[in-house]
From TrEMBL:
Its main location: membrane. Residues 74-308 form the Fatty acid desaturase domain. Pfam families: FA_desaturase. It is a multi-pass membrane protein. Keywords: Fatty acid biosynthesis, Fatty acid metabolism, Iron, Lipid biosynthesis, Lipid metabolism, Membrane, Oxidoreductase, Transmembrane, Transmembrane helix. Its EC number is 1.14.19.-. It comes from Mucilaginibacter rubeus. Belongs to the fatty acid desaturase type 2 family. GO terms for molecular function: oxidoreductase activity, acting on paired donors, with oxidation of a pair of donors resulting in the reduction of molecular oxygen to two molecules of water. It is found in: Membrane. This is Acyl-CoA desaturase. InterPro entries: Acyl-CoA_DS (IPR015876), FA_desaturase_dom (IPR005804).
Amino acid sequence: MAFLDHVLQQPSYGWSDEQGALAKPRISAILKEFARRLNVFKDRKNWLPFFSWLKVLCLVPFVALFVFKFFTLWMFSAAFLYGMIIMGSHGTIWHHRFCTHGAYRFKNRFWRFITQNLTINIIPEEIYVISHHVHHAKSDQPGDPYNAQGGFWYCFLADVNHQPIAKNLCENDYARVKRLMAHTGVRANTYRQYQYWGSYVNPFRAIAAWLLNWVFWYAAFYLMGGHALACTLFAAAGIWAVGVRTFNYDGHGHGKDKQRDGIDYNRNDRSINQLWPGIVAGEWHNNHHLYPKSARSGFKSYQLDLAWIYIKFLYRVGAVSSYRDDKAVFAAKYLR
């Protein structure tokens, strides 16, 4: 726990107050911290959160073109399918179940690369993975980077204010960060490079990967449906990029106890199973907190899990070599 206590960069308002309870900053303090941490002119080590939001800003023109030029019922349907289902499921498949929890293993680097780039590149793996380990260790407790009890803005801006790794890790602790990230295929900075850039990933590699991904997908969408389809799907990715930042606030009941008997079985935190994120992205959140290393989170008959369907398909064609499925364990403990 000592490592997880300090692996993330603590906000200026701290994780807890003098009594050890969650520090609940005012919205003004959250926004001030957000602006400070995006300032790359003051500190180059702010480059990764700045880069993360730069990608979101670059998608704004596509949203405008979709709304004011290319909007039709068919394009709206395409945007819904891509943004809600494909982008949502990919986040669960890649960032959540593989990069963070290692719930399954790829047969080789080729299939890992394909899955990593299955959609438009938005979220840096480093920001998601390390902070998500802390989230599970300290769920709904002080130190949880997106503690819903801190309020909507506390969660919505967490990728900048709470999730980046600390900039002053010792060499041994940085080596532990590298071990948590090694299986993702994202190449690590050396410790000296980390001290200079304040990140696991090198900015030049991150920018190159982003540009190649976006060029490939825009070209692919253009060949399928011209500028209209390409702009529409990039717009959908932009809408998803904003919407996904609201998930943990909703997925933990807005910081209140909204768990229901017979639906939410994990009572160690305030995570809840929600029908919409479950169906469109396989994100049955309470189930996931109950068995975080499971490649499947849809345990009941009505709990559609598209992320699991993709993982199982790759296993059947030989692209995934192994996986963990806790459905039988869940059924034996809670349903029988």
